[in-house]
Design goal:
- The complex is a heterodimer of chains A (about 160) and B (about 120).
- With about 160 residues, chain A is mainly α.
- The radius of gyration of chain B is 18 Å and the shape is globular.
- The chains are: A mainly alpha (about 160), B alpha+beta (about 120).
- At the A-B interface, helix 4, helix 5 and helix 6 of A face helix 1 and helix 2 of B.
Chain lengths: ~160, ~120
């Protein structure tokens, strides 16, 4: 990996991290665990379509670890990591199928996979199936948030041509 | 063609979960609640007959939640976690949707009625 590439990845990670920290400051109108706008995923979606799989995974890992540290909520890391891993695998597969015009769809599915991963982790960690009741609500809100971040990423990709 | 199929599948999943969400968010008429931590039931209460009280529950890794019973409703009124989602969720209303505190692995929910 050359220096230019590495700098780009570092820059993207820090942009994602800044968005993440700013989003923490926005009060959440839906007091349901796991419901979030997930603006930092604009960077993830952008990276999925512009960088290699391993490079995207690096950006997401850095974001997750530093994000957990900065938010002062390291116990949330397990849930977000489970979601992020499932989401990333799904999106990297979808990248092969979907054309660049349907990035928003990729983002919607990614968001849903993220929620499924989160809930699976929660069921395992809490040792209770009752948390699974959150899944339908998370899927609806998640797909809305995913569509939004997807459209943002699409606009970005159109503007930043290679 | 393949893309259209994916699109339809996504739309169906969203519709189904929207319907399920409406079902899940309905108010409960049950009175028995239970407080569960780490998969074990710590307390059960009958909201009708329990006087107003507050219980402090400590998590195994440190940290606490203050569960409050007031006028036949139950809520988490205080927690020392950074996200405060369980406090913001307010009063327990739905049968299926428990109040959860993810950092402290705590669940407050309506109990199944034994027949």
């Amino acid at each position: 990996m050359n220096i230019r590439r590495m700098t780009e990845l570092a820059l993207l990670s820090s942009v994602a991290l800044i968005i993440f920290v700013i989003e923490l400051r926005i009060p959440n109108p839906f007091p349901i665990p796991g419901v979030k706008l997930g603006l930092a995923n604009i960077v993830t979606v952008y990276a999925v379509f512009r960088y290699r799989s391993s490079e995207t995974a690096m950006i997401v890992t850095v974001r997750l670890l530093l994000g957990a540290m900065f938010s002062g909520n390291p116990s949330a890391l397990l849930y977000s990591a489970a979601g992020a891993i499932v989401c990333l695998c799904g999106m990297l597969l979808l990248r092969r199928i979907l054309p660049e015009k349907q990035i928003w769809l990729c983002s919607v599915i990614g968001a849903m996979l993220h929620n499924i991963g989160q809930i699976t982790a929660a069921v395992i960690i809490m040792q209770s199936f009752s948390v699974a009741a959150y899944l339908p609500i998370l899927l609806v809100t998640g797909s809305l948030a995913g569509a939004f971040t997807g459209v943002c990423a699409q606009l970005l990709l159109n503007r930043i041509k290679r | 063609m393949k893309n259209r199929k994916i699109l339809i599948a996504v739309a169906i999943i969203i519709l189904v979960s929207a319907c399920l969400s409406v079902l899940i968010l309905r108010r409960s008429d049950k009175q028995k609640v239970e407080i569960v931590q780490d998969g074990t039931v710590l307390y059960t209460f009958d909201l009708n007959s329990t006087e107003d009280r507050a219980i402090r529950i400590y998590a195994s890794e440190g940290g606490y939640n203050l569960v409050q019973i007031h006028n036949g409703t139950i809520c988490i009124s205080e927690a020392d976690c950074p996200d405060q989602t369980c406090v913001n969720m307010g009063v327990l209303k739905s049968d299926y949707l428990p109040i959860v505190c993810l950092p402290h692995k705590l669940i407050v929910r309506f109990a199944e009625v034994e027949s």
